[in-house]
Amino acid sequence: MNITVVNLNPCIDWQLTVDSFVYGGLNRVTPGKKYVAGKGINVCLALASLGQPSQCLGFNYRENGSFITDALDEQGIPHDFIVVEGAVRTNIKLYDNATGAMTELNQPGAQVSGANLLSFHEKISALGNSMLVFSGSLPMGVPVDTYRQICDMWHGKVILDAEGEALRLALEGDKPPFCIKPNLYELTSSFGVKLSSKEEIAAFCKELIRRYGLKMICVSMGADGAVLVTAASAFFIPALELPVNGVQGAGDALVAGLVYGLSLGASESEMLRMAAAAAAASVIREGTLMCTREGYAKFLAEMPEPIRF
After folding, report:
1. pTM for the whole thing?
2. Residue 131: how many CA atoms within 13 Å on its side-chain side?
3. pLDDT confidence bin for 34, thresholds 50/70/90
4. Is residue 101 scored above 90 in pLDDT?
5. What is the spatial distance between Cα 202 and Cα 255, in angstroms, rounded to a whole number?
6. How do residues 238-253 score in pLDDT, each as one tens digit?
7. 263: which of 43, 184, 269, 278 lies 20 to 30 Å off by Cα?
8. Tens of pLDDT along 140-196?
9. Per-residue three-class SS string for the chain
10. In which band, very low, low, confident or very high, does the pLDDT at 288 lie, cut at 50, 70 and 90?
11. Which domains are present in the chain?
12. How far is the C-alpha of 166 from the C-alpha of 185, rounded, in Å?
């Protein structure tokens, strides 16, 4: 199965660490590291580690855009970006050793022109049959209903990892995504609900599936595990107890695991195991580094069978 991952807002993650964060005061940081990122970029890198080919489309920027393309080239991932004037945004990830909290300072991304946007739609329209994965935020100049527009014209499966109005509008279109993958905060904040148990999460997801015609929703909950919900069933898988070295790419690795499972025709419960194993193999790596094939295989063997509830 052909898989196309769309990343509209690439970035460079600059991870810094402090011993104990002082709000409003002086913080001395350890020498930081920079990682190629953007949710769709991360999904492509994780899929490559899992042995699943994909191609990457979307926008890249003229200034320092080679930081993105060099990383994809190194992994043999084909890409066909619309090149936009300006620079790839840099997101600062400040990790507090004392509390384990990550403070994120994310730039919005440079302005995308109307001509850039038209070129992007033309590229999508020219694609052959493939699974389409949309992941991440929208840069300035890209309409908030862009995900909805693509879903409405696409004939195959769409996997969407987005939040807020971009997510809600995509669900309200003529052709909703096949699957969405919010984390718990994105789910509750996007729809203005409070959900405190896996049963409440599953019930709300089933209501979204009934209302909009989705086939599947996967909700990641960090250290509390993940749930996968369809119209007929709900599965829960706990997170393994692991040393956490990088949390910001775990959700993207989970998306890659879902897509990998879908491409292999895995059952719903096995798909969730695969997704959780990919996420586990990501969190043990520092910064925004994605899972390795060896890490994925190790944690897949250790991952328990999901609980149907």
Report:
1. 0.93
2. 23
3. very high
4. no
5. 18
6. 999 888 777 778 999 9
7. 184
8. 999 999 999 999 999 899 999 999 999 999 999 999 999 999 999 999 999 999 999
9. CCEEEEECCCEEEEEEEECCCCCCCCCCCCCCEEEEECHHHHHHHHHHHHCCCCEEEEEEEEECCHHHHHHHHHCCCCEEEEEEEEECEEEEEEEECCCCCEEEECCCCCCCCHHHHHHHHHHHHCCCCCEEEEECCCCCCCCCCHHHHHHHHCCCCEEEECCHHHHHHHHCCCCCCCEECCEHHHHHHHHCCCCCCHHHHHHHHHHHHHHHCCCEEEEECHHHCEEEECCCCEEEECCCCCCCCCCCCHHHHHHHHHHHHHHHCCCHHHHHHHHHHHHHHHHCCCCCCCCCHHHHHHHHHHCCCCEEC
10. confident
11. 3-308 (3.40.1190.20)
12. 15
